[in-house]
Amino acid sequence: MAGGGFVSSGGNGDYEGKVTGFVIMTCMVAATGGLLFGYDIGISGGVTSMDEFLLKFFPNVYHKEKSVKNGESQYCKFSDHLLQLFTSSLYLAALVSSFVASITTKALGRKISMLIGGLIFLIGAILNGVAMNLGVLILGRLLLGVGIGYANQSVPVYLSEMAPAKLRGALNVCFQMAVTIGILIANLVNYGTATMKKNGWRVSLVLAAVPAIIMTVGTVFLPDTPNSLIDRGQKEQAKAMLQKIRGTSNVDNEFEDLVIASDMSKQVASPWGNIMQRRYRPQLTVAILIPFFQQLTGINVINFYAPVLFKTLGFGDGAALMTAVITGVVNVVATLVAIFTVDKFGRRGLFLVGGTLMLVCQIAVGSLIGSVFGLDGHGQFSKVLGDVTLAIICVYVAAFAWSWGPLGWLVPSEVFPLEIRSAGQSINVSVNMFFTFVIGQLFLTMLCGMKFGLFFFFGGFVFIMTLYVFFFLPETKGVHIEEITKIWRSHWFWKNYVPAEETRV
Ligand SMILES: OC[C@H]1O[C@](O)(CO)[C@@H](O)[C@@H]1O
């Protein structure tokens, strides 16, 4: 998934090569892959807050929302399992399909998987746009998920193999950047379509076809990667392709390394068995905890449900959609900050500052909502208090976007040595998808049940993850992948797990 397959160089990274047209094309594929994913994250919240959409597919929610004014709890007005399924089903389908995609990507090549992803996504977008009933709507969402699973599995792998080693880290964060731009575009589209008298939600949903078409058509013109050609026994074509994409005939070193890497990966009987060994406990912990914590920051409460959340806080329809645009802009800008600071301040610095800020914001938002709605959910936010809440949520989104957002992908990609890389990345991606699904499915129910305490709940997790970073996550800034084992070996805790005698890469 997003950035999940970016891998650092296993070789020395000092190969000859220029930034060729192919490399630029790969960046564009990265952008459309990320946009596709981001558009989906951002579109559902706005659509589920549109009256026409609710009335058509979720009439119970619509009537509940309208009747709240007669004295029911504000916390529960949107709580509905089917409504949440509309948002979350996509991520479950993506989780399952990314496993299938990993088989296709290996056996048939990266390009085929990208094509399959783009096409299935396209069908899903069209089905969503023309949906006449809830069944078709959810089926469309599931197909979008299958497309996302395929794209998120294959695009990052494609990128990491096509890009020169020196560009891999930058591309990693750029993918996340594209995700945030996709979210923002979706927020803007919703803001515009909500003013349409009829069928605004259809336009919002069908526009997902645009990035899908760009990606599908773009992929037709892309070659497959040298790594994939070698893996499938086509060494001569692979060498010619490598010369073409690097813009030089002097690619022998890199080519040899690719062949060795391919041979080695075929010898690894089971990367899954490998990663379970005690010596890889630090990496296994990263592969599970980092994506788990990234989602337990609660960020997708905002990305999925900002309009619904702000409607709960008494904002009008247009104003609620505007809040999503505002948080969307903050998300993009703060991700830019991450790109420029991650190699200066290091990963730990960003994690610790970001985590602390998020915690303060969550306590503030929980207290504000609690003070107005109390436990029974009766009450009304004044305009000033509503704006203050929005401002605090913006600080929270910024803090996420320069810490756990991009680092949630970057750090895992830096710590897996070759022999456990594929398994490590798969775990990272699927844990992320799974908890994205869980938050999408449960947030509205949790808000109804836990009330303002929900913000303290996420705050508690942010506190725990910040402690984890402080005590258990070593700095990986500027560390070569070959050196990574040394870092764990000299760590006060993890040295108990990593054997001292041999240096493994
Ligand atoms: O805004 C950030 C977005 O990025 C992700 O973490 C994926 O990389 C999403 O889960 C989130 O919605």
UniProtKB/TrEMBL annotation:
Protein name from the UniProt record: Sugar transport protein 9
Protein's organism: Capsicum baccatum (Peruvian pepper)
Molecular-function GO terms, alphabetical: monosaccharide transmembrane transporter activity; symporter activity
Similarity-based family: Belongs to the major facilitator superfamily. Sugar transporter (TC 2.A.1.1) family.
Keywords (A to Z) from UniProt: Membrane, Sugar transport, Symport, Transmembrane, Transmembrane helix, Transport
Positions of transmembrane segments: 19-39, 82-100, 112-132, 138-159, 171-189, 201-222, 284-306, 318-342, 349-370, 390-411, 423-446, 452-473
Mode of membrane association: Multi-pass membrane protein
Presence of the UniProt keyword Transmembrane helix in the record: yes
Source organism, top-level taxon: Eukaryota
InterPro entries for this protein: MFS_dom, MFS_STP/MST-like_plant, MFS_sugar_transport-like, MFS_trans_sf, STP/PLT_plant, Sugar/inositol_transpt, Sugar_transporter_CS
